[in-house]
Specification:
With 310 residues, the chain is α/β, with parallel strands linked by helices. It contains nine helices and 13 strands. A hairpin with a 3-residue loop joins strand 12 and strand 13. Helix 1 crosses helix 9. The two termini are 22 Å apart.
């Protein structure tokens, strides 16, 4: 029986992790009474008692929680942005390489990836690792996400029956071309420059589609969409949660919410002789947050990574 603590269980990611673990018989969920959930001493005790703690907190609170840990055996999975590029932390995207999965398995500190970052990295990192794109390639990324990624306040705004009409339209954000996920995108893909990133929030609850369009003439290797399919199919061949869509599976209109409620990520590849279309479709609350966190926990505990995940 493993002792697991969710610090910040009341947030969207924390609640999703709790729901994924509540029915498991190999997990003892350490919980705090409502009046103690922000009590420093009570939280500290739980963090040091647990085999693994999930931090579903704002960045500053996550850093504070890490500072409370004194038990050398206590392990942390941080779902915030605070430690994704920090020294001593393992970035929790096991599919990116066999060595990364091994690092996660033995890590004391794992930083759960950001949702947009997961979509971009699963597409761009293999290109750089395989020498198809250079580290200086001018990557672009367009990401459409459900509104649940904005957290409780944003969810409440969208569910408000008297909401502003603008919420019925897709809404561009991060128009200053800055986003909190960019540093992890750059680091995990080994890029010299940040991609031009274009996130859009839409009027559906959960799901995400991250598109990385490529200009063939700017790549290090001249490849076709068919070549790219073969490369990605081999790269992710042994993965449980990443699948590559066959050409006949590519719809005329690609929905962002087709994998909602799962921990799956599906890559779509299409294009012409001049441009190649790459897209990662997944659940921003699943493989983009709580599902990935539970997958990392399973790996850290030496369990089948698919346990309690679909």
């Amino acid at each position: 029986m493993y002792n697991i603590f969710i610090d910040g269980k009341e947030g969207t990611t924390g609640l999703q992790i709790y729901d994924r673990l509540a029915a498991r018989t190999d997990i003892n969920l350490i919980t705090l009474p409502e009046d103690k959930r922000k009590d420093y001493s009570a939280r500290k005790s739980c963090l040091n008692e647990a085999d693994i703690s999930f931090l579903c907190l704002p960045d500053a609170a996550a850093r504070e929680a890490v500072s409370m840990v004194e038990n050398p055996s206590a392990r942390i999975i941080d779902a915030s942005t605070a430690h994704r590029t920090a020294e001593g932390w393992v970035y929790g995207l096991p599919e990116i390489s066999n060595s990364r999965r091994q690092q996660i398995a033995t890590a004391k500190r794992v930083a759960n990836p950001g949702c947009h970052a997961t979509g971009f990295i699963t597409l761009a990192a293999p290109l750089v690792k395989g020498g198809i794109a250079g580290a200086d390639y001018p990557f672009n990324a367009h990401s459409v996400t459900g509104y649940s990624g904005g957290g409780k306040k944003t969810i409440a705004e969208y569910k408000n029956p008297e909401r502003d009409i603008s919420l019925s339209s897709p809404r561009q954000y991060a128009t200053a071309m800055q986003h909190k996920h960019l540093p992890e995108m750059v680091k995990e893909c080994g890029l010299k420059f940040a991609p031009a990133f274009n996130p859009i929030i839409c009027d559906f609850y959960c799901g995400m589609c991250v598109v990385v369009p490529l200009t063939v003439r700017l790549l290090n290797k001249k490849v076709t969409a068919s070549d790219m399919y073969d490369y990605f199919a081999e790269y992710y061949a042994t993965q449980n949660f990443i699948k590559i869509a066959k050409n006949e599976e590519i719809p005329a209109y690609l929905p962002a919410n087709e994998l909602s409620g799962t921990n799956m990520l599906k890559i779509y590849i299409n294009g012409s002789s001049e441009h190649i279309f790459l897209a990662s479709v997944f659940d921003n609350l699943g493989k983009g947050a709580s599902g990935a966190a539970v997958q990392n926990m399973n790996i850290m505990l030496g369990l089948d990574e698919r346990t309690s995940l679909i």
